[in-house]
Each structure stands twice: as structure tokens, then as C-alpha cells.
Amino acid sequence: MPQSLMGKTALVTGGSRGIGRSIAERLAKEGATVALTYNASKSGAEEVVEAIESADGSAFALHSDLSDVQAIPTLFEQLDRELIRRNGSKALDILVNNAGNSGWGSFRDATPDNWDAIFAVHARAPFFVVQAALSRLSDGGRIINITSGAGARAMSAVPIYSMAKASINNLTHALAQELGPYGITVNAVAPGWVRTDMNAAVRENVDMVKMIEADTALGRFGETSDIAAVVAYLACEESRWVTAQVIEASGGYKL
């Protein structure tokens, strides 16, 4: 089959595991040169790059702690150097804001510190990553934000996380208006319950699993590849008339 992203370049934040890893691997499978960021898991990032290259794809990993807004200019300096070395240009075609951190914590347990920690990664970092990317992003480029079903249907167990993801939904709409004149589309993908290590404890609770599956139209937890497939569509030319959308990829959770 033809590769829909041949010759394109992509940056996937938080690409060393979970949904981010599947997105990086899928974009590379479609022909893109993929830069992925990691924070704590260098070995995980190296494993992803090795897997992509073993499948004849092209990828490289960059360390960046996106909880620190000052790290973003450094990230793009590193990205520029590597893209110029590989492609002769620092042009970026696809940006996927995926990086996240744990959002668990009830309203009564919330502190200013965990508020700041969650908003720094889930809301502030994507804003300034996009700002930094604009001078590199090609006309007709793609910005894809990974949000959550909790951004539209707030979960009482994770109020700060829910608010941060609602912010990303709003940012998606605002950026689509801002960047439309350049042919740049901006969309968000909102997963429901997906099998990742961040919800491993939930999946160990048999009753909770049965309840979630019963509340999901397709009757199962999502796989990371399910989300990557939606991202791959939004990254390709076929999605050129789709922008300013928050696409829920939840298997029909709590319809």
C-alpha cells in the first residue's frame, strides 16, 4: 500500500510509551520521519526508535521535560539540528501534542502543586510547543492534540485533569481559526478508556472493568493502535477539510 505520509516530518511529544508510542510508530509506518520526545524513559524512547528503524522507518528521540516551559526552545533547537542533518531543512509537517502526566487526585485532595504540575504538561506545554513550532510548520501542516473524553464529560475523580483537557479542546478551536489561512488544520483526539500503564490499577478491578465495558458501545477497552489510527487519518491529505474538531475515539463510552 502507498504510504500516506512519505516525505513528511512529524514531532510527537511523549512518544516513549502508551498512546504516544503507537502514534509515533504509525506515523513512521506511513512514511514520516518521526521525532519523539521523552522525559523519564530514555530506554523506552530508544526502544521505540529501534522498533521503527527495524521496520525500515525513520525516527529519533529527543529528551525534554515539558513541565518546564524553558525546555521548549531547547527542544526545538535540537529538533532543527537533527532535521537539517537528515533532510536539509527544519520544516515540520505534523505536530502531535501527546505528552502527559498522572492526573489522578480528587477535588478534596488537590493542592496548588499538583494543579500546577498537571496544567504545566497538559495545557501550558501544548500552547507553547505550538507557538515554537509555527516558524517551522509548513503551510498545509497538521496539529493534532491528544485530549480526553474527560475534557467534555468531566470526571469527579480527576477534576484538575478534566479542566486541563477542556483547555486543550478550547485551544484546538482557537488555533484552527488562527491558522486556517495557512491551510494548517488543528484537531484533537479524545480517547476514552484505553489500555495503558496509567490505568493499570483500574483494569485490575474486575468489577470496574465490567462496568466500563458495559458502558462502552463497542464493549471493550480501546487499544493504543485505535487512537493512532485516528491520528494517522488527521495527519494525512485525506483529512484536509477537517479542522477545529474534537474527535472522541472512545468506542462509544457512555453514550
From TrEMBL:
GO MF annotations in UniProt: oxidoreductase activity
PROSITE patterns linked: ADH_SHORT
Domain Ketoreductase: 8-193
Keyword check for Oxidoreductase: yes
EC number(s) from the headed UniProt entry: 1.1.1.-
UniProt entry keywords in alphabetical sequence: Oxidoreductase
Signal sequence bounds: none
Protein family membership: Belongs to the short-chain dehydrogenases/reductases (SDR) family.
Protein name (record): SDR family NAD(P)-dependent oxidoreductase
Protein species of origin: Pseudomonas retamae
